[in-house]
Structures are given as C-alpha cells and as structure tokens.
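User: Continuing from earlier, I have the next pair ready.

Assistant: Great, send them over.

User: Here they are, in order.

Assistant: Folding the first of the pair now:
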Amino acid sequence: MTPPAPAPALRPRASLRYLLRAWDALEGAGLRGELSPRSFSTLGSASASTTVALNFAEVSFPGFGVLRFTGIDSARIEIFSLLAFPDDPEAHPVFASEYVFMGSVVRAAVVDFQLGARCPAARAALARLASRHARLLHDGEYPEWCRPHFTRSAVFQLRETALERRVLEHAFDDYLGEFAGLVARTGAPAPVEDAAELADYKAHHCRHTPGRPFLSRCFGADWTEDFLAGAMYAPQPGAGVLAATG
C-alpha cells in the first residue's frame, strides 16, 4: 500500500516523550539541538482496522552529530527507535535504542553504546551500567546480525518479558544519562563526512533491521526502503528530504 503524503510537522504522540528526553539530555550536556526540515509525520495501516502514526525526527547537534528518532503509535502499540550518531565515532559512541510496548507489556527493549571500543570513557560507563542493570542483559549468544556491534553491557530483551515497563524505562534513562555525561566530558570533534566505520555500521543496520517487515506492512516495501536508507540510516548530516509518496 502507499501511505498518505507526510504531514509538515510532528504529530503529538505518546512515543515522542523519548525524543524529548534525549533532546533535553544532550542540551544538558551543553549542546544546542535544531530540528531538521527532514522531520515528518505520516499515517499507515497495520491492518484493515488498525491505523498507525509514524513520526520521524532528525535533530542536529553541532559539536556532536545527529539524533534520529522514529516513533510509531497505534491504539495497541507504542514503538520507538532512538539513534544518536556522532560525527566522529572515535570521540563518541553511537547511542542505540529501540523499545516496543503493548500497553504495560514490554515486547522488546534494546539500549547500548556501540562503536565505542576505542573510547575508554564509554567502556567505563558501560561497565557501570551493566552492574546496575545486570538482570536486563542478554546471557546467551546474540542473534548473528547483532554480533558485530552489540556489547555485552547492552539491555537486550527481544521477547515478551514479565519485567515491568517502568524498569525498562528507568534503564533507558540511566543509559541516556551516562551517554550525555560522556558527550559533556568530551571535546567537540571536527565535522566529517561519514567515517568508514560509521558508514559500515549504518549500512549493516539498514540491511538487518528487524523492523523492516512491520514497516513494509504498514507503509509499503518501496517506501520502507527509501525511509531506512534515506532517513533513519542516512549519511551524516543527512542532506535532502525524504520524498513524499502518494
């Protein structure tokens, strides 16, 4: 199916609060965020009776990089993906998170710092987080597509869990707070085109994102491929606007 053309502004939806938390955290680290004109809202259908609203926001933070948020809301489900891509992955890690809620039930929760192997402060922060959230970590083998980038300190719940929603929300806020602290303590990197490591990271996640089938069902396969490559995992700082469909 082809969704309606994107609306010019973000729609007020429950999942937007996670974007606002991240924006506030990075501004608390001394950065100033600016919402990109690439940001948009659109509607799709998960089924004949279920409408879903998608918000995509790109917020540029000079001195760090870009924050990209995708929120999907319907009467039954709330999903968000929040990715903070640094201009220089040697100076800052990637903040990677994705949560899926059905009311009070947590269907999936992932939050991690990635590409931070050469950043001692990131490794130290992850060690502190792992000690505070040990029961939320994955104690087995990661799925194959996760192995190149996920750390052993990631919150990683990909099945429905009995954990309370507030526990996973607290973990998100704690990882976000540590990440903002890292950014605040690190000098601003020089703006660069996508470093090869970051470009490879984005390409890998664009190919393997587990959200592709759901997005394709709601918005169509062609639109989904354009969205993943041209918005969610676009190069730094991301030029141009995702083409409207319909």
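And the other member of the pair:
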Amino acid sequence: MKKLFVVFLLLFLISFGATASEIKDLSKRIEDVYGVSVLPPQEKGWSVMQKGKTQLVLAKKGPTENSTYIAPITIFKLPKIRTEQQFLEYISKRKEAQQPKERFKVIQDNHEFILGGTNRIIKYHKIVEDKVATTKFGNKTMLMEIIGYTFQHPKNYSVGVDLGFSYRYHIGAEDKELSDKANAFLDQIKLVDLK
C-alpha cells in the first residue's frame, strides 16, 4: 500500500506543479537502485521524483489536463517461494494490498508467466479507475493503465523486482502508443550485481 500511496502522492504533486529533479541527460543511466540500472524514457520532460536504494520513481506530465506518466522501479524482499503458483499468489496478494478496493476499481487485470530461466517472471497489464482522482478533479473519470514486470532478481531469488510504466488519464484521452513507450523503457533496464 505504501508504494501505491507514494505513486499517487507523486501524481498529485506533478498535477500541481511541484518541482522535481528534471533529467537533463537522457543517455545517462541511473544506478542508485539496488540491483538495477535504468536508462530514463527517451523523451524530454521526465523528472526523478524519488530515488533511493529500493525505489526509483520517474514522472512526466501527460499531454492532457491532469494526465501523468509514471515509471516506478521497486526492490522488495521475497519469502522463500518454491513454485510458480506460490509466486503468483504472493505477488497477487501484495498488489491487492497496494490497491485498496475503496479507492480503485479494477477494469482489466491481465498477467502471464514468461520464461526466465529458473527465476519467476510475471508480465502484467492492468487498468484501474481511480475513484479518489475522479472526485478530486471533478466528474470526469480518471483511469490508470499500468504495464510491467514483477520477478525474482536472477542474482538472488529472495529479492523481488517490480518494473512498471503507467499513464493516468481521463476517459477518451488514452495513449495509443502506451504499450510501445512502456516496452521501450522496460526493455532497456539492466539487472546488475546486488551490492
């Protein structure tokens, strides 16, 4: 729940012009996060909203009123997991706790396991209605579409990694290129030694 709260707090701050550290050099990797090396999305306007050993949040204002792009990367501790089913159940419960039903109405929730050698990888694509944003910004419904991966770090299976790319928007202001933008960002992320 803390992760989602932070993301929506950042959305709120972006919507009202809060300052952040704008990324000037898009060719420079961000390597502050434990076990991950990130190249920012290759578009002007992205900022670092939060940076630490276990979380990086990049953000950009969207093209329409109150719309925002967020690219969060989170590292977390995993319990000992023996099967894909245990992994899926653990991650599902973790994500559900981060998205309280009183705030979010799930519209679409697709996930699939993809081959990753011996580590477990879930690819997800989710669309939720944000009921709080809807009240805050009037009667227009706001949706958030999230594309990402959750997996065990290949260097240490007790470390979980969540990589995401999301867009929050009013109905009718969808980004038809969201999947391409998300994949371009997510595909360039490198997993590095855990230091």
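Worth noting for the second one:
The longest helix spans residues 84-98. The two ends are 27 Å apart (CA to CA).
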